[in-house]
Amino acid sequence: MAARACPRLSPTLRNQEALLGLVFIAPQVIGFVGLVAGPVLAILYFSVFKWNIIQGTLTFVGSANYQRLLNSEEVTDIARTTVLFGLGFVPATVVGGLAVALAVNSRSRWLIGLRAAYFVPVVISLAAWTLVWRLMLAPDGAVNGLLGWLGQAPVPWLRDSSIALAALIVVQFLKSLGYSMVLFLAALQTVPRDLLDAVRVDGANRWQSFRSITLPLIAPFTLMVTILLTIASFKTFALIQLMTRGGPGHATTVLAYYIYQQGLQLFEMGYASAIAVVLFVAVLTLTVLQLLLRRWWVYEGG
Known about the structure:
The chain is built from 14 helices and two strands; from the N terminus they run H-E-E-H-H-H-H-H-H-H-H-H-H-H-H-H.
């Protein structure tokens, strides 16, 4: 018996379904336009103006803000600091999160409790976390107290330009380690257990099993974690504001904090908008490059 053809929907019913679909996605579209696309377009618009929000003046200057940005040695140094922060924070958090996830990837009650302990910093308020670490890294704080107990001289963690950035990277790393761990735990749950058992029966040790089976299969998750942490590193603001305010000098000033300084402290909103545009383009370019490079290091199943 021949299969009966699927009845076609009438034009009126199709229009009703289309309208219903638009109603369902309308809140998301309105939110995106109002909270994402609108502000981005506004920043692009104001980046070609000299806008002083105190005086209330708005003067068209064309590409002058971008020329000033490109010719600024200060911005070059701050961009270098931003890159160094990302290079220190992102790889350490990716590798550390994967290592911790491998260590606690078990149904043992003790290890489940350890997972929760690693994840606690993620749910703690960033402001509270940062202020506690600021007190601990103070000249008379707990860290220097521990060094003194060990017979070592105190270290000016946040006042020495040569180590202040490294101290911030460690604080941010400890805050984000649990987040990375949870994502990698989810990735490890997708690796077929029977496949791991098969390679061990064939004589592979744990390292060979991890390198040849686990690591390729979780590569898409690794890419996702890397992209998320890279974007987060470029958006770092509260950590800088609460711990060092960009000091000493510009040793810990990153581009996100520099935008705040130029726009809301010096009231040069046009110049701050130009910096924000450049930062947006840089992050977008880096994200696209990471996605394009996936063909060389991300395993695609099937």
